[in-house]
Amino acid sequence: MQQSVLTTVMLPAALALIMFGLGLSLTLGDFARVATRPKAVLVALVAQVLVLPAVCFGLVVLFGLEPLLAVGMMLLAASPGGTTANLYSHLFGGDVALNISLTAVNSVLAAFTLPVVVNLSLNHFLGDGQDIGLQADKVVQVFAIVLVPVAIGMLVRRLSVRFADRMDKPVRILSAVVLAAVIVGAIIQERERLGGYIAAVGLVALLFSAISLAVGYWLPRLFKVERRQAIASGMEIGIHNSTLAITIALSPSLLGNSTMAVPPAVYGVLMFGTTLVFGYLVRRRAGVAEPGEREPQSLR
């Protein structure tokens, strides 16, 4: 992919803003709270780190995706929960406090697990020595784009809660505008092949979204995790951070390949529909949400 201002400046800036906004809603207490829900957190993390990459690998092999699209799907599977998980959990009766804790832990964990999964995928599907996982400089880059903006956001919140709350909406709007510009630019660059890519990966992305949500909910239920926590897990594990995946795929200093960005981009559109259907089904099954849920900062 040709380097441009979009991929070298605006895309990393958009992700940094998104992760900074996430940090504005987190505190150290969100990490400490994990100890109060050990089983729910452990099951969710096992699903995130082990089960879903295995499921995704099975899907791309079953459907015979071309190598670059297969790596893009695996990159998506290795990405942590998206920032909209808190909102969906709140809307459909999940334990939002658990979502916030899972988001905090996932953000840290992904900085280590994502490069490993992607590197293994590159070696398996391409076999040409490309990697991001075992090269120290690229591990540091992934670590930086995931964790540094979050840490800065948390520091800002610690210094001034009022300022953090006031900045939440402007940060979200600005990051969305920048990200939209980058995606439009990538679409224009790949416009001649985009239709074929969507046809090739659309069904796989749709199935992966539905399976992610189902695994995120039913695996905790299998281990007797209470329903509200299972809903939270379903949203956190089922909604992958497609923005992070797109950034790593398009960034010239990491993968620098627009084809690998197609699966997370297609997923980012389709997952809204599957998540709404999933939310309706679990809300209908659970009945009216219990009172007393902690509203996430991002909703205030």
Descriptive keywords:
300 residues, mainly alpha, 0% strand
Task: Give a short overview.
The protein is mostly helical.
Structure, explained:
With 300 residues, the protein is mainly alpha-helical. Helix content is 77%, strand content 0%. The protein is built from twelve helices and no strands. α1 (5-24) packs across α7 (136-159), α1 packs antiparallel against α8 and α3 (38-62) crosses α9. The longest helix is centred in the C-terminal third of the chain and has 32 residues, at 191-222. The termini are far apart.
Biggest pleated sheet: none
What is the ordering of alpha helices and beta strands? Answer: HHHHHHHHHHHH
Q: Whole-number radius of gyration? A: 18 Å
> Helix count, per DSSP?
12
> Which consecutive residue ranges, at least 5 long each, have pLDDT under 50?
288-300
Protein structure class: mainly alpha
Number of DSSP strand runs? 0
Average pLDDT over all residues: 79
Q: Helical percent range?
A: over 70%
| Relative strand content | under 5%
Question: What shape does the CA trace take?
Answer: globular
Query: In angstroms, what separates the terminal alpha carbons?
Result: 40 Å
Secondary-structure map:
Elements: H1 5-24, H2 28-32, H3 38-62, H4 67-78, H5 85-91, H6 96-125, H7 136-159, H8 161-189, H9 191-222, H10 227-238, H11 242-250, H12 262-286
Helix pairs in contact: 1-7, 1-8, 1-11, 3-4, 3-6, 3-9, 3-10, 4-6, 4-11, 5-10, 6-7, 6-10, 7-8, 9-10, 9-12, 10-12, 11-12
